[in-house]
Amino acid sequence: MSKQEQHWEKTRNLLFITLAIWFVFSIGIFLFGAEMQESSIRPFGYPLTYWFTCQGSLAIFVILIFWFAGRQEKIDDEFGFSEREGDK
Amino acid sequence: MIKGKFIDNLPKVYGIYTGGFLVFIILMAIAEQAGMSAKLIGIFFVAFTVLIYALIGWLSRTLQVDAYYVAGRQVPTVFNGMATAADWMSGASFVAMAGGIYFKGYGYMALLVGWTGGYVLVASLLAPYLRKFGCYTVPDFIGTRYGGNLARFSAVIVLTVASFTYVTAQINATGTIASVALDIPFGIAVYVGLASILMCSMLGGMRAVTWTQVAQYIVLIIAYLLPVFWISSKLGAGFFPHFMLADEVARIAELEGQFGFVKNSAADLATVPKGLAGITKAHSSVNATPWAFISLAVCMMAGTASLPHVMMRYFTTPSVRTARRSVGWSLFFIFLLYSSAPMLATLSKLSLIDPTLPTGIIGKTIAEVQAIDWYQNWNQANLMFISDFNGNGTLELNEFFMGGKAVVLATPEIAGLPYVISGLVAAGGMAAAMSTADGLVLAISNALSHDIYYKIINPKAETAKRLIVARVLLVLIGFAGATIAALEIQGILGSVIWAFDFAMSGLFFPLVLGVWWKRANAPGAVAGMLLGLISGTAYLIWVRSGGSGFLGITQLTFGIVGAAVSLVSMIVVSLITAAPDAATQKMVDDVRVPSGKTVLAQK
């Protein structure tokens, strides 16, 4: 496998992990909205589903993007594909 | 003044700007105490901020193609994040969202999840790769990746349909705010709004839009957060509402149980002015089926990743790495406002319906409520209405009606905040609507000038001519948008949601597969774009004209139909036609690697 193919395979795996987490917090948990609402877990005292729709999922997306960017930068560095000065 | 050095001094420049704006707010507060009229304060707020944006637009004027189309590709990560947030958060986010949550609760909050979750798709599937591509517009990517004028042309069609639907809503919003704040008729206010929008974008294109959008973000976020924190403290709900409103949410549920949701008869409802609604759904309970919630969220997410005015913001960063991080910052800045909207809805609702609070009106006599100053003001503005349906002389929950916009616009006044805050909110709404309209008008005119005029009609056109064409188109599109906005065909929020569905129907899969599936070819992409857009539109028309629809897909989620048709037709047509040539495959390989020159620079 060429260096580029290996790089792309790692990039793709990172994509799948990112999309899996994204799926859980944008779609997965809302399949169980009614059940979660009754849960005794109440972040800051809010009902659980209500909290996820107005803060939880949103905050997780912000963190997820920064985490993803960091991991992708590591992959690019590993294969020497990061941008250098003068690349334009 | 705005050259090289300006980029290095950004934190300082915008720091001074923010400080200056805060001083302006304080001066206005002092002027209010000294007896300046509410109307004059409103005029000052809107006129002052719009003049500042126009000044920035004029200072950023340019004669260079690179600066006009992609701001010279030197916008730093965090500032591009702010600009994208302003680009993204429209009049609908600012003025209508808290109102939607106030009336519809959980089912509506799918928009919060959808309008933020979409950025994960932007960051992971598209933005860094399109930045590496080095294109000026979204159709530029489609046209070069797939090859052929037909693919480029189809992309322009989808872009224009989606963005134009969106931009009429934004011009409508600027008109609404300008007409209230400056006290002029809506038909004229729309053109005042248009003039402000064009001043920001015409001379400097993307460069001017970038630096005005940063300025607009600062105004709109201050205008949104300040009242939320203030009202929360004033009600004694807590100084940091986001973490402290649990008791208030529980109290609303308790009151709702106590009052009950009485259904009004059709004859009674017919007397309520158009566009106003009563509280008919529980505030915090799960009131929508999983599918209704998820399908709306999915449409907004896929639409986010296909809307060209957002995507082109990531063409302006210096590198692929900064494009990726910039998406994170964009979402962070959006999060600040979106996580506050439900808090505002909660505070607004509680202060109106809790009889134990001095501001509560439910349970008071009809005559008492009619005597309140703010009720008279907003009733006159056609945003509030009460009626004693059951004739008992007391106001019940089902007898109180409000317009969606009133939650943001009127709550400061209801909670007894000084008028200076209402003026600030008007300036914020204006900033939100203007910044989005700017991005959209520019996206359309850039696509027409670069992709249709330069790439298809006249590839030999020299720089000066290209930029003149771009500006003429900008003005024409602005006027077309304003003319349609002045007709007031549909509400602001409905057309915004449609824009997402249109974009998703035609562009989502052709964009994503262009990067992630090497085998995708031009015939497949054209089929995907056109069949997707046509089937989505057909479904919309069918449902609008009384069709029953299927699978619970409504006129707000027709993008699901369009995108599904788009995906299937794109894969089938790609597979039965020839694979892309070696040069195209090499191009896709290059896009996937951040280092090296942009793909277009290599050609």
Question: Please, could you describe this protein's structure?
Answer:
By secondary structure, chain A is mainly alpha-helical. Chain A has one domain (14-78). Chain A has helices at residues 3-26, 33-37, 48-78. In chain A, helix 1 runs antiparallel to helix 3 (48-78). The two termini of chain A are 28 Å apart. Chain B has 603 residues and is mostly helical. Chain B has helices at residues 5-8, 10-33, 38-59, 65-70, 77-88, 91-104, 106-133, 138-146, 149-182, 186-201, 205-234, 241-244, 246-259, 266-269, 290-304, 308-311, 320-338, 341-353, 366-370, 373-380, 406-414, 419-457, 463-487, 492-516, 522-544, 559-576, 582-591, 599-602, and strands at 276-277, 384-386, 400-403. The model of chain B has no long low-confidence stretch (mean pLDDT 85).
Give the helix/strand layout:
The complex is a heterodimer of chains A (about 90) and B (about 600).
Chain A: H1 3-26, H2 33-37, H3 48-78
Helix pairs in contact in A: 1-3
Chain B: H1 5-8, H2 10-33, H3 38-59, H4 65-70, H5 77-88, H6 91-104, H7 106-133, H8 138-146, H9 149-182, H10 186-201, H11 205-234, H12 241-244, H13 246-259, H14 266-269, E1 276-277, H15 290-304, H16 308-311, H17 320-338, H18 341-353, H19 366-370, H20 373-380, E2 384-386, E3 400-403, H21 406-414, H22 419-457, H23 463-487, H24 492-516, H25 522-544, H26 559-576, H27 582-591, H28 599-602
Antiparallel strand pairs in B: 1-3, 2-3
- Ranges of chain A where pLDDT stays below 50 over 5 or more residues in a row are none
Cα separation of the termini of chain B: 34 Å
The figure for the number of domains of chain A is 1
Distance between the termini of chain A: 28 Å
Largest sheet of chain A: none
Q: Which strand-content bin applies to the residues of chain B?
A: under 5%
Q: How much helicity do the residues of chain B have? A: over 70%
Q: What is the number of helices of chain A?
A: 3
**What is the rounded Rg of chain A?**
18 Å
